[in-house]
């Protein structure tokens, strides 16, 4: 039996996930804040309960993680970790021996499936066919002529983390060429990795440009007017990373002028876009409500991911999805 430790959890999970978490933490002391979180997009308030914890699970505020004297392992309930991705936090965490993990593994599968669905929908002209149906239209010759195969096409991935790696696996049977940009390639990539200098030339070849960048100091407005202008008129842009990484007015202008063929946005800035925002009805623009990472088993998967990492922590093994 492992030693009993204090585990701070700021998130209120739905019933089934809460029961699994309670069973998994039976041997430990669970510390709850006065105000619980329901989602994973906002940080929780600072709360004295974390000061007694060795482990935290949820969206604890960064200053509280550093202030808690015994804290050694924190697991976030999100794939993104913008709040913690800055040199001061990293340095302080390193000094106190705090490991921070994301839940990228939980979100990689649904996000990759979502992207695959969008890429296939583009190739098979599904949005056009749905629109035709609403209009009682039957444009067989035109839709057949517009549909294309993925084989031989070029997919450019911005950010090559958990989602992009899983998408690469899902795309394997389609025999596309994949080019990817990452901040610090690991060396085990199975696709062609690009330097930032090589990106412009890759953009000019892209049939599908997939943005899976996180939000951080280096990615704000990364896909700007200059980079969008490199794309071919037949290219489609997909963003499921963060809205701030894509220049919205520049995207809107590119869609309206026909400089690109279409865009699929699962994330926007702000979320949701205001009702009068021009992207809502820009030609070829399809918006989903930040749901690419969602699935009906999301919360149970988050709890299982945490409990598996907790077991690794207890055995002194390397943690999964460690980001700091
Ligand atoms: N739409 C949704 O429902 C949904 C769901 C899950 C995730 N997301 C978003 O998707 C993002 C990616 O998720 P993931 O699980 O794939 O994360 P991940 O495994 O952390 O991968 C992100 C990759 O992007 C790299 N990167 C960071 N800054 C970069 C830059 N300036 N240029 C090139 N590469 C850069 C990172 O490098 P380092 O390792 O060096 O930082 C990392 O390899 C998340 O951060 C989140 O914002 C959205």
Give the distinct bound molecules. NADP nicotinamide-adenine-dinucleotide phosphate
Which structural class should the secondary elements be placed in?
Answer: alpha/beta
Q: In angstroms, what separates the terminal alpha carbons?
A: 28 Å
* Largest sheet properties: 7 strands, parallel
Radius of gyration in whole Å, from Cα?
A: 22 Å
**DSSP strand count:** 12
Order of helices and strands: EHEEHEHEHHHEHEEHEHEHEEH
Helix content: 25-40%
| SS field, number of helical segments | 11
Spans of at least 5 consecutive residues whose pLDDT stays below 50 are: none
Q: Give the amount of beta strand, in percent.
A: 5-15%
General form: elongated
Please give the order of strands in the largest beta sheet: 8-7-6-9-10-11-12
Mean pLDDT: 97
Question: What do these coordinates show?
Answer:
Helix 10 links the parallel strand 10 (236-239) and strand 11. Helices cover 35% and strands 14% of the residues. Helix 4 (104-123) crosses helix 7 (162-171). It is elongated, with a radius of gyration of 22 Å. It is of the alpha/beta class and 324 residues long. It has 11 helices and 12 strands. The strands form 2 sheets. The protein has a 7-stranded parallel beta sheet with strand order 8-7-6-9-10-11-12. It binds NADP nicotinamide-adenine-dinucleotide phosphate. NADP nicotinamide-adenine-dinucleotide phosphate (NAP) binds at residues 79-80, 104, 107-108, 111, 159-164, 181-184, 212-216, 218-219, 240-242, 266-267, 290, 292-293.
In short:
The chain has eleven helices and twelve strands.
